[in-house]
Amino acid sequence: MTVPDGPAAAGRSPAIVISGAALRFGDTCHFAGLDLTLDGGRTTCLLGPSGIGKTSLLKLIAGLPAAGLSGTVSAGDGAPLAGRIAMMAQRDHLLPWARLIDNTMLGARLRGEAPDESRARAILTRLGLGPAIDLRPEALSGGMRQRAALARTLYEDRPVVLMDEPFSALDAVTRHRLQEVTARALAGRTVLLVTHDPAEALRLGDRVLVLNSRPGALREIEVPGGAIPRDQARGDFAAALGRLFESLGDGGAQG
Ligand SMILES: Nc1ncnc2c1ncn2[C@@H]1O[C@H](COP(=O)(O)OP(=O)(O)OP(=O)(O)O)[C@@H](O)[C@H]1O
Question: Where in this chain does the record put each ABC transporter domain (predicted)?
């Protein structure tokens, strides 16, 4: 079987409204008063210096408790967000004793649902992990483990997907190919993707935002034209890349 591109519920991928988000530890404020709406059914890429609070923002949206973090998050359609979000964290969180295919279907098992092995196989094959389906995590390379975590996230088939540097451990060719596979699989969903790779953000993002070192300040970067994943050979891609590097270089400060 094949993996369908985009969600069956593409039209039901809600906007996400974040209000008054803050990350503070004692006298240190990483961001405060941050308001952001993620467009429903579209991909937003978030960049910013290490330690600025990008992962924390993902945790806030996912409803994961974390020290120092506050703010409200709601769905634009007014329905609860619980059960509608899949998150791919920086750490793969693979169970060491479980085969790759069982790690992929872990969420279903934990929820007491019947796992769909043929769908899991199709996703793993599409991510280039077909030959590794029966291996345990100790036998996987770092890049394979990251693809395993990606497979588990895609298997969840949620309308809202949060991804924290999902391709950071991959070689350039595999990264490029999996950006395409992932973009197709997530088309029509509400996606927030954190990355340190400016070209990746411009390939995949309907919107590209930089979280800067002035607490709570987000800067939106004008994106190039073209369908996602965008063609890096376009002239306006290089221009957008220049703007994005400039923004990252000055801490994302608003000009
Ligand atoms: N318990 C804590 N006490 C003090 N500071 C903390 C604590 N937990 C997290 N932090 C700080 O919160 C900040 C935000 O962390 P976060 O992981 O969200 O950043 P990030 O932008 O995702 O970083 P990276 O790009 O390196 O992944 C970091 O500077 C971190 O040091």
Answer: 16-240
